[in-house]
Write a structure and sequence with these properties.
This protein is of the alpha/beta class. It has one domain: Rossmann fold (3-Layer(aba) Sandwich). The chain contains 6 helices and 5 strands; from the N terminus they run βαβααβαβααβ. The protein has a 5-stranded parallel beta sheet, sandwiched between helices. Strand 1, helix 1 and strand 2 form a beta-alpha-beta unit. The longest helix is centred in the N-terminal third of the chain and has 17 residues. The radius of gyration is 15 Å and the shape is globular.
């Protein structure tokens, strides 16, 4: 299987950081392009931000964080990448982005939740493989990219 395009889920979590680093190293080895996707869920900010809520400002802040912080490992690795903030749930955003980019691989980080908590609350890494026909790689904190 050739890998030309990798979609990676990005957020401020440690699991996401590990997934981005993993995708950056693999993309460097394979000279693949990476599409970094952050799912922006405006309603998730209710109760976390004082009213009135400026959703446009929150989205702009997400776009800035995505470009400046969360994609830093991609930039440091010198791989070709684009960063996208997509409105919707993480699973929907990743599936849609993978389809749009004709991705050969979708990469997400493991959250490190207990099995029970993950089953009760739901998890992108649990739901994603059942939501797409594209290969999915779930990166755990200690995983290293395969050698090309």
């Amino acid at each position: 299987m050739s890998v030309h395009t990798i979609v990676v889920g990005v957020d401020p979590s440690d699991g996401s950081d590990q997934a981005v680093r993993w995708a950056a190293e693999l993309a460097g080895q394979l000279r693949a392009k990476v599409v970094a996707v952050h799912a922006f869920e405006p309603l998730a900010y209710l109760g976390k931000v004082d009213p009135p809520i400026d959703f446009h400002a929150l989205r702009v802040a997400c776009e800035r964080d995505l470009d400046e912080q969360w994609c830093a490992p991609l930039r440091a690795a010198g791989v070709r990448f684009e960063a996208r903030v997509v409105e919707g749930t993480p699973v929907e955003a990743l599936v849609d982005a993978a389809e749009a980019a004709d991705a050969d691989l979708v990469v997400v980080g493991a959250r490190g939740q207990s099995t029970l908590r993950g089953l009760v609350l739901g998890s992108t890494s649990l739901k994603l493989p059942h939501s797409t026909t594209r290969p999915v790689c779930i990166v755990h904190p200690t995983e290293q990219p395969p050698s090309a």
